[in-house]
Structure formats: C-alpha cells, structure tokens
C-alpha cells in the first residue's frame, strides 16, 4: 500500500476569505510576522498495488477532473510513503 | 400537447418541488427526474434546482456533475436542450463546464438569505424571453457558495457577448465579480443564476411578487412556438 497526497489550493489571484479570517486572528493569539494565510484541501489516497507511472497518471487525471476544479484551483500530486511495495 | 419540463432531484436537492410547482403554475408539465436516471424521458427542457446536492462536500455541485443523469443533460445541452440551473443547479453547470467560471464561498463567509434586486441584462435567452431588457426584478436569494468568479479574459468575453444575463443591483450579496448573478452559454439555451425565481411565483409567498414566473412562461412559450 502506498499513499498519494493531492493538495488543492485556490489559484493565487482568487480571494480566499477563509484564509484571511485565519490570518486576521493571528495577532490576537500572539502570532506576529505572518503576512498572509491561504487555506487549501489535502486528499490522502491509499493506493492498492504499486504506484508506478501509470497509477500516478490515473491519479493525476482524477485530481484534474474531480478533486480540483482547475477553473479556480491548482493542485499537486505527490507520493508520501511506500511500504511493502515492489521495487 | 403541452411542454414537458424535467426537474432533477439529487440527494440533497431542496427546491425541486417548488420548481415543479412553478412549472405547473406557468402551464407546463413538470417531470420528476432522479439523479440515477440515465434517460431524460423525452423532456423538452431541464431544470437543475437549488439545494445542497451530495452535501456540497467536495465543492458545491462537484459530485452531482458526475451523476448518471448529468451525462444525458451535458450531452443534450450541447445539442441545444434548454437547461436552467438555479443556485446549486448553477454550481452544477459550472462544474460541468456547460457555463464558464466557477462558484466559491461568499466573501463574507456567511449563509445569506434576502430579497434580492436584479437587472435583466439579456432578455434573449431561452429562459428570459418574457422579461424586458433592463427590467428590474426582486426574487429571493439564499446561498453559502454564491461568489461567481472567472478570469478577466472570460469576464470580458461574457460582457462583450451579452452573456451576463442578470446583475445584482443595490447590493452585491456574495462578492461575485462584476456583480454577476447569472450567465448563459454561447447558444443561449443554458442559463444559470444564484437567486431563486421558483420562490417568487405566487403573491402569497416569498417576496409577495411574482417576478420569478416569467422564467417558466418564457421557456413554455419558446417550446410551444418552436
């Protein structure tokens, strides 16, 4: 089993009011020096079998068509850990 | 024979019954469609109603867009079938790329429910023929994810082609770019808007006005005259 992580973030030019609300709370909590916060989504996909190029390509398609809406969001795909997989 | 207008019920749809009622009041025949239906059953038009389909868990409208019924809706919309998306239905239409841009959480992060003033910017679509160009109407608005966004190029294109169908007046309730409340596709058969015309079709309810009824009489007239 391996884990593939898909991170989805609003495109930089799109207003993120959730991130702003978090950022505005920081000084009140004693955290200073953080000039911006943006909030995104993390998907952890547990994949059966090897995470080879073909599997990653399928996950990339999944992220592009479903997990992210590429009209408003960017995404990244990365393999987080490989335990007991061939290789 | 009168026009048959399908109304899709997704798990989490809220306004499907009000929409069917509005269609009846306009004089057409509402046809209940289920999200698992692959076949639209010979309807002349389709409405995707408001609500929180599939809980809006991934993004508003994102999961519904892949429901079996949407395969047929997308295919037939591209072939000219009139489709109206109201609120969650509008979100489904953007997720399905039948309409450009995307819908995000309101800029103030709150659910909003109010009587909203709008201007009809395009009375030439399949769903707005019974309005006058520039007419100002009041219909209810209620949503969490009503902020319409698109890149500058798309916004300029929509404006230049007259595809902004409705604009918010007096108050922008959710941070939608250029006060856009509703848009149409290039052919004018697919329309999406955030406010709810189906809640303003009888004087006793909603705003006390019937400013939403022309949506449903417009499509009926278009279909009967077609």
From TrEMBL, chain A:
Gene Ontology CC terms, in alphabetical order: cytoplasm
Pathway: Purine metabolism; IMP biosynthesis via de novo pathway; 5-amino-1-(5-phospho-D-ribosyl)imidazole from N(2)-formyl-N(1)-(5-phospho-D-ribosyl)glycinamide: step 1/2
UniProt keyword Transmembrane, yes or no: no
Enzyme class: ligase
Reaction catalyzed: N(2)-formyl-N(1)-(5-phospho-beta-D-ribosyl)glycinamide + L-glutamine + ATP + H2O = 2-formamido-N(1)-(5-O-phospho-beta-D-ribosyl)acetamidine + L-glutamate + ADP + phosphate + H(+)
Recorded GO MF terms: ATP binding; phosphoribosylformylglycinamidine synthase activity
Predominant place of localization: cytoplasm
InterPro entries xref list: PurS, PurS-like_sf
Assigned EC number: 6.3.5.3
Record localization: Cytoplasm
Biological process terms in GO annotation: 'de novo' IMP biosynthetic process
UniProt keywords, alphabetically: ATP-binding, Cytoplasm, Ligase, Nucleotide-binding, Purine biosynthesis
Similarity section: Belongs to the PurS family.
PANTHER family documented for this protein: PHOSPHORIBOSYLFORMYLGLYCINAMIDINE SYNTHASE SUBUNIT PURS
Alphabetized NCBIfam families for the sequence: phosphoribosylformylglycinamidine synthase subunit PurS, PRK05974.1
Subunit and partners: Part of the FGAM synthase complex composed of 1 PurL, 1 PurQ and 2 PurS subunits.
Biological role: Part of the phosphoribosylformylglycinamidine synthase complex involved in the purines biosynthetic pathway. Catalyzes the ATP-dependent conversion of formylglycinamide ribonucleotide (FGAR) and glutamine to yield formylglycinamidine ribonucleotide (FGAM) and glutamate. The FGAM synthase complex is composed of three subunits. PurQ produces an ammonia molecule by converting glutamine to glutamate. PurL transfers the ammonia molecule to FGAR to form FGAM in an ATP-dependent manner.
Protein name listed in UniProt: Phosphoribosylformylglycinamidine synthase subunit PurS
Naturally occurring in which organism (per UniProt): Streptomyces griseoluteus
From TrEMBL, chain B:
Keyword Ligase: yes
GO biological process: 'de novo' IMP biosynthetic process
Localization: Cytoplasm
Origin: domain of life: Bacteria
Catalytic activity: L-glutamine + H2O = L-glutamate + NH4(+); N(2)-formyl-N(1)-(5-phospho-beta-D-ribosyl)glycinamide + L-glutamine + ATP + H2O = 2-formamido-N(1)-(5-O-phospho-beta-D-ribosyl)acetamidine + L-glutamate + ADP + phosphate + H(+)
Pathway stated in the Swiss-Prot or TrEMBL entry: Purine metabolism; IMP biosynthesis via de novo pathway; 5-amino-1-(5-phospho-D-ribosyl)imidazole from N(2)-formyl-N(1)-(5-phospho-D-ribosyl)glycinamide: step 1/2
PROSITE patterns membership: GATASE_COBBQ, GATASE_TYPE_1
Keyword Transport belongs to the record: no
A single GO cellular-component term on record: cytoplasm
Classification via InterPro entries: Class_I_gatase-like, PRibForGlyAmidine_synth_PurQ
NCBIfam families: FGAM_synth_I, PRK03619.1
Function according to Swiss-Prot or TrEMBL: Part of the phosphoribosylformylglycinamidine synthase complex involved in the purines biosynthetic pathway. Catalyzes the ATP-dependent conversion of formylglycinamide ribonucleotide (FGAR) and glutamine to yield formylglycinamidine ribonucleotide (FGAM) and glutamate. The FGAM synthase complex is composed of three subunits. PurQ produces an ammonia molecule by converting glutamine to glutamate. PurL transfers the ammonia molecule to FGAR to form FGAM in an ATP-dependent manner.
Name of the protein this chain belongs to: Phosphoribosylformylglycinamidine synthase subunit PurQ
The organism's taxonomic lineage, starting at the top: Bacteria, Bacillati, Actinomycetota, Actinomycetes, Kitasatosporales
């Amino acid at each position: 089993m391996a884990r593939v992580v898909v991170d989805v973030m609003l495109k930089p030019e799109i207003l993120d009011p959730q991130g702003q609300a978090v950022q505005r709370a920081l000084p009140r909590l004693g955290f200073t020096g953080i000039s911006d916060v943006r909030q995104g989504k993390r998907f952890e996909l547990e994949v059966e079998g090897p995470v080879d190029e073909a599997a990653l390509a399928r996950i990339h398609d999944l992220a592009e068509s479903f997990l992210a809406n590429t009209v408003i969001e960017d995404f990244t795909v990365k393999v987080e850990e490989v335990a007991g997989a061939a290789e | 024979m009168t026009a048959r207008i399908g109304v899709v019920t997704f798990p989490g749809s809220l306004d499907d019954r009000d929409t069917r009622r509005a269609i009846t009041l306009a004089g057409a025949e509402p046809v209940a469609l289920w999200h698992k239906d692959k076949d639209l059953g010979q309807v002349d038009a389709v409405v995707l109603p408001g609500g929180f389909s599939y809980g809006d868990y991934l993004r508003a409208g994102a999961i519904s867009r892949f429901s079996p019924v949407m395969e047929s809706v997308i295919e037939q919309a591209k072939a000219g079938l009139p489709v109206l998306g109201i609120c969650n239905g509008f979100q489904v239409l953007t997720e399905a790329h039948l309409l450009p841009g995307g819908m995000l959480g309101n800029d103030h992060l709150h659910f909003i429910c109010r009587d909203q003033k709008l201007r009809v910017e395009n009375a030439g679509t399949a769903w707005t023929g019974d309005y006058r160009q520039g007419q100002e109407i009041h219909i209810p608005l209620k949503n969490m994810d009503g902020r319409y966004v698109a890149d500058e190029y798309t916004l300029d294109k929509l404006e230049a082609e007259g595809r902004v169908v409705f604009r918010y007046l007096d108050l922008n309730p959710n941070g939608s770019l250029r006060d856009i409340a509703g848009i149409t596709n290039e052919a004018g058969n697919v329309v999406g808007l955030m406010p709810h015309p189906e809640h303003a079709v009888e004087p006793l309810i909603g705003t006390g006005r019937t400013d939403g009824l022309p949506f449903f009489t417009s499509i009926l007239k278009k279909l009967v005259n077609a």
